[in-house]
Specification:
single chain; 343 residues; alpha+beta; 2 domains; 5-stranded mixed β-barrel; 4-stranded antiparallel beta sheet; 7 helices; globular
Length: 343
Amino acid sequence: MSTGTYKSRIHCSIDLSGEGRQIGDLRLRYSDNRQPLGFYPVPIICIGGTEEGPTLLLIGGVHGDEFEGPVALMRLMHSLPPREISGRIIMLPALNMPAIEATSRISPLDRANLNRAFPGDPDGGPTAMLAHFVETVLMPQSDAVIDLHAGGKASVFAACALASRNEDADLSESNLALAKAFGIPLIWLLGAYNDDRSVNAAAARRKVPMIAAELGGGGGCDPVHADLAEAGVRRCLAHLGMLPAGPRDDPPSRLVEVTSAAQNIYAPCRGLFDRKFAAGEEVEAGQDAGFIHPIGEPSRPPVRLVHPSTGIVLAHGNRGHVERGEMLAMVAHDTMVGAEASR
């Protein structure tokens, strides 16, 4: 683990090398009408254990309308006793704090998507500055990263862990082991189809083991998925040797991947989407997916949609009225690569 020094305009108000529980801010200095001379605070928590061990970076709130992860991290911040931890936990429960306050997927400061902003820019807008700080300051100090997501207001995901697969076989193996430890049976393997501007891609560039998780959606905070997030992080802490290990009851893993946008369904027109499937459901190629009713032109007949491929629905859109081009269903396939890796 190396710390490194990188230029950043973001100041951290706490000492990340200290022991015990510290609560502070990342001070995002961005001069606008709301904060012309001040800063936008982004909460950061560091829990330094009394024993040597790895550093785990926990991230929530990359998108500001996904609340299960931030809730789980707030629970953990108050419930994890430093004396029982080996190593160090760095928590960012609301990395995109301005977006959290606005219940918005994107930042209201610059209308940018933080999970499409890496590696960032220390001299860019607020979203680029945050991405740069995470990738160049926090990730080099970390031995593992967990990034908690949900579908937000616009979509609903089947609960799954996401593990990147890349050219570094050892890193890919560590990612998969961390995903299995998280304890959700469905694991989405990210390969060439993954966006290289995401947190996952940033960790791969820094050679840090990392998983993300997708936990439901809808824009609220589902208690089942918040519980899954909290339990999953605790299991990963035990897996990394940072908490005492209890009995392991790892469920069998099902590994899936999305290899092409052609597996998905996108709205061909505007209208009301009369959906006939749910996230986590198995579907067959040619099966009815639903109908779009052109409510602005009631005399027009509904447009029938079918699933173009067989697989499991990873996610579906959550809007009643849809626009042309909107993602309505994301379908994944079981992967032989994953089957071999899980043996």
